[in-house]
Amino acid sequence: MAGLCTINNLAVDEDLTVSGERKGSKSNILLTVSAAGFSRNFRLGGVLTGSGKKSSRGFVAPRAGNITAMSISYEVTIANVANSTVSVLVAGVAVTTMSIDVSSVDILTDFQVESRGSNKFSQGDLISASFAGVATLDELILNLEIILDD
Q: Hey, CA dihedral for 83, 46, 59, 51, is it positive or negative?
């Protein structure tokens, strides 16, 4: 009968039953912006997040964890050579920032992977994002990968 291999390369040939909870699970948060030339804050489920009057809006972390990656898809409608960035905020403070290319009118993508432990958040922290730059963008889609500690 084939069975389990080594612990590092676990293989299961039949059904697997596990008791207890899965810990350290990955999740994703999807934030979007329409017409970023007019708005600098992202939306989560249609609600504006970020700084200013909306600083109390965002994804509320149900448990402590880490932001381990971010990916973005966006359309540049009016290009500019100046630096543009997307920042992820935890409790209103930027924990990671990604420079994005806005030098030509195009639909672009980018991603950034972070080490686990470098962008921590606590239970109850608000996670949001903001765009800074002078180019005009449309339809930004930002995906954050998070790992909950337990």
A: positive
Instruction: For 54-87, write each residue's pLDDT tens digit.
Output: 556 778 888 899 999 999 998 888 888 888 888 8
Q: Tokens for 113?
A: 């992977």
Beta bridge partner(s), residue 59: 127
Q: Are strands 59-60 and 47-48 parallel, antiparallel or unpaired?
A: unpaired
d(CA 38, CA 135): 10
pTM listed for this prediction:
0.73
Domain boundaries, the chain: 26-148
| CATH architecture, domain 26-148 | Sandwich (2.60)
Ranges assigned E (strand) in 1-150 = 26-33, 43-44, 47-48, 59-60, 65-78, 84-90, 93-100, 106-113, 120-121, 126-132, 136-148
